[in-house]
Write a structure and sequence with these properties.
The protein is mainly α. The chain has helices spanning 22-53, 65-76, 81-95, 100-111, 113-130, 137-161, 168-200, 202-222, 245-260, 262-269, 274-282, 299-321, 328-345, 347-354, 362-389, 395-417, 425-455, and strands at 2-3, 233-234, 286-287, 290-291. The two termini are 22 Å apart. It is found in: Cell membrane. Keywords: Cell membrane, Membrane, Peptide transport, Protein transport, Transmembrane, Transmembrane helix, Transport. Residues 44-451 form the Major facilitator superfamily (MFS) profile domain.
Length: 463
């Protein structure tokens, strides 16, 4: 058994949007609809658990939920319903970023990227269908976790494979464009599913997410011929090169850089956990006599990510013409600093809430805006870095491993969310600002040695 090809496949002859390969548009639109489905469902999840599943009339009918609570409380001690719901939400949102490791291995070793993406979409559709029933809640979450693991990292790996070796600038901007599509879904998903759930009930909101996932699969199939060919193990093909010592050093450097990102990731994703509780309880959401659903605030993340991308692309192109565009690690470091600032400014309204006041919606809007800017600085850049620098033999697997930082960050979100009822709200946000700032400081220290190693890494530099 051997890998059919270890070099990245370039499919750049057919030009599509903004001078990029046509395959980018299909991958971006597929991911947009998948993310619309994912964020629509996720925006409902925490409040659904608290307001429906944990109510006395329903909790006993949910398969294995009691055993899950017992298992979690064995590790954490007794939890309030809010704390338990936050733990479940964080486990789910974390595990969807853990399973891409195995999805990448499945693609690299057996199925190839395209077939693994299709498998993931089918699993996710089944999961969304089962979310229509209270009893199958945990089964549905399990299918969604497995499906996302098959789909997420492999679509990102395909984006990187569309570009020629050494085309670092276009690849990084392609991932930024890719994240416009993702955040279009993040913007519309909470709005569509949140409003439908509020008007027609939880299960209509979840069912809508399933229909959107089906549409994502259709888009992917339509664009099939424009996607990079699958790389998988085949009989009778020459064996791939073994990883050299330098490859292992590159892998170690990428793993270290990804591990640093756990802290700002936790600070970023907390806006969708404890931040949502803050909005629900303490933010004035009245507009012309109508109360904006707290879940709809999650749409701001997608909106501000979309707004940030063209601004940053213009900035980076302007800098590139003058030979001053920051390298990948510098962009990542700047992103961490911005996320620290986003959480730091929340100390001001949180102090007012600690004194019993209700605060303006301006504050969560500012949090989402700065968090989104920081995220667009660091996350698409990390994806582009991994796509370029990871050895070709394990490129999809390494892309999946990058998502481990998001998994671990979300586990940390759940643990820290338990402090929401213990710390003052001002101290809670200050703690998250400190986490992101610590990552910024570490990156300043390691940027030069890691940057030198990764600058020459990538399939084009393999013998």
């Amino acid at each position: 058994m051997a890998i059919a090809s270890t070099a990245p496949v370039v499919q750049g002859e057919e030009q599509g949007i903004l001078g990029h390969p046509k395959g980018l548009a299909y991958l971006a639109f597929t991911e947009a609809w998948e993310r619309l489905s994912f964020y629509g469902m996720s925006s409902l999840l925490l409040l659904y658990i608290i307001q429906r599943l944990l109510t006395p009339d329903v909790v006993g009918s949910v398969l294995a939920l009691g055993r899950l609570r017992t298992g979690i409380e064995t590790l954490t001690g007794p939890l309030s319903d809010q704390a338990f719901a936050s733990q479940v939400f964080s486990l789910y949102s974390g595990l969807v970023y853990f399973t891409p490791v195995f999805g990448g291995m499945l693609a690299d070793r057996l199925l190839g990227q395209r077939r693994t993406v299709v498998l993931g979409a089918l699993l996710m559709i089944a999961g969304h269908v089962l979310m229509a029933f209270d009893a199958s809640f945990l089964i549905a979450l399990s299918l969604l976790i497995l499906g996302t693991g098959c789909l997420k990292g492999n679509i990102s790996a395909q984006v990187g494979q569309l570009y020629a070796p050494g085309d670092e600038g276009r690849r990084t901007r392609a991932f930024a464009i890719f994240y416009v599509a993702i955040n279009t879904g993040a913007l519309l998903g909470p709005l569509v599913c949140g409003i439908l759930a509020q008007v027609y009930g939880w299960h209509v909101g979840f069912g809508t997410a399933g229909a959107l996932m089906l549409f994502a699969l259709v888009i992917y199939g339509v664009g099939w011929k424009h996607l990079p060919p699958d790389r998988k193990r085949q009989q009778g093909v020459a064996a791939p090169m073994a990883l050299a010592a330098r490859d292992w050093r590159v892998i170690a450097a990428l793993l270290f850089a990804g591990a640093i990102g756990i802290l700002p990731t936790a600070a970023y994703f907390q806006e969708m956990n404890a931040g949502l509780l803050f909005i629900e309880a303490s933010v004035d959401r009245e507009v012309f006599g109508w109360t904006i659903p707290a879940t709809s605030f999650n749409a701001l993340d997608g909106l501000f990510c979309i707004m940030s991308v063209p601004l940053l692309i213009v900035l980076w192109q302007w800098q590139a013409k003058r030979g001053r565009e920051p390298r990948d690690l510098s962009k990542i470091t700047i992103g961490y600093l911005i996320i620290a600032a986003a959480n730091l400014i929340m100390v001001v309204p949180a102090g007012s809430v600690d004194r019993g006041d209700t605060v303006s919606a301006f504050w969560p809007v500012a949090l989402y805006a700065l968090n989104a800017l920081g995220f667009i600085f660091y996350w698409p850049t990390q994806l582009a870095l991994y796509a370029r620098a990871a050895p070709a033999q394990v490129n999809s697997t390494m892309m999946g491993i990058l998502f481990l930082s998001v998994f671990l960050g979300n586990l940390l979100v759940g643990r820290l969310a338990g402090l929401w009822e213990i710390l003052s709200h001002a101290h809670f946000f200050a703690l998250h600002a400190a986490l992101a700032f610590a990552a910024f400081l570490v990156m300043l220290v390691v940027m030069r040695p890691i940057g030198k190693l990764l600058a020459q890494a990538g399939p084009e530099n393999q013998p």
